[in-house]
Amino acid sequence: MNQPPDDVPPVPPALPPQADLSPRPFHFTGNGGEYFRIWIVNLLLSIVTLGIYSAWAKVRRLRYFYGHTSLDGASFGYHASPIAILKGRLIAYAVVGLLALLSEVAPLVASVLYLPIVVLAPIIIVRSFRFRAANSSYRGIRFGFDGLDSDAYTVFLFWPLSVPFTLGLTYPYVTKRQREFFVGDSRYGRSLFGLELPTGRVYKLYVLAGVALLAWFALVGATFMSAIAQLATAEDADVVPGLSVFAGIGLLYVGVGAVVVVVRTAFENMVWNHTLLDQHRFDSRLRAGRMLWLYASNVVMLVLTLGLFVPWARVRMAQYRAESLTLLPGGPLESATLAGGLEAEATGAELTDAMDLDFGL
After folding, report:
1. Based on the domain organization, do 91 and 210 belong to the same domain?
2. Which of 167, 201, 229, 317 has the fewest Cβ atoms surrounding its Cβ within 10 A?
């Protein structure tokens, strides 16, 4: 038998393949014309059935948007039962109807019933989060939400009660804690999400928004004062407010709407850019100018089409949000989530069976 020469170096063992850490952008492939057919059927059937079909309409809508949203070549899924949604809505409608009736015939009784509803609100919020997560999936693996009722009472009841007593100073902190609760207690299979927002940046965002609103209110107030001055100096007592009043009202709505859009855009970017999924991160690049253009153009088209532009408005917003979001892998995407997939699906099913309701939050 031939032996290899002694001077030939041994062949080193093969190295494991390196994980592909290239960014993974999100994609949305839906289009307005396609979704319009789903939307118009949902609308007509909901009207004909006096709202009963709205539960099936919600499932069809979410399945369309989930199914056309993809990451790394795989789409998301939505699996809720319309019956579960219908049961939750019937309960919600019954409570609202009862309160409306009692407010007319027995206002004192109605006011007393508001207290248990407020007390139960955090529990309802947690159940709704669990329902939505357990019925959402990616690559066959269910999401989950493990938030505790006790924590929900802190972030959705006790902290919000402090807002009026602090003249709104705790509102940014409440918003931060609520989003951290929702994201931080969510998971994908066995992989946990994490979120810790910088308190200083959150307060800076809301303080700047408050300053902008005050400046805008001053401008609107000056417009109204100009209109009042015109009325005071007018010789005709029956003169009606001029264009200044209508301009002031328009400025008020435009200014408040613009500030709200800018704050929401900046806050959404901040949340995504501080969210972790195991070792993976996200990069959100939403631009306030583009969001303002989308909202403004959508509103104009909705008015011109008498509301028929709704499907295109929703698709345009979904496309921009998806194209502005990227997953930044910190390691292999195939992690412990895959090993825990079956367990996660079973857990999700148990949660859905245990609280088979969606209150439409």
Report:
1. no
2. 167
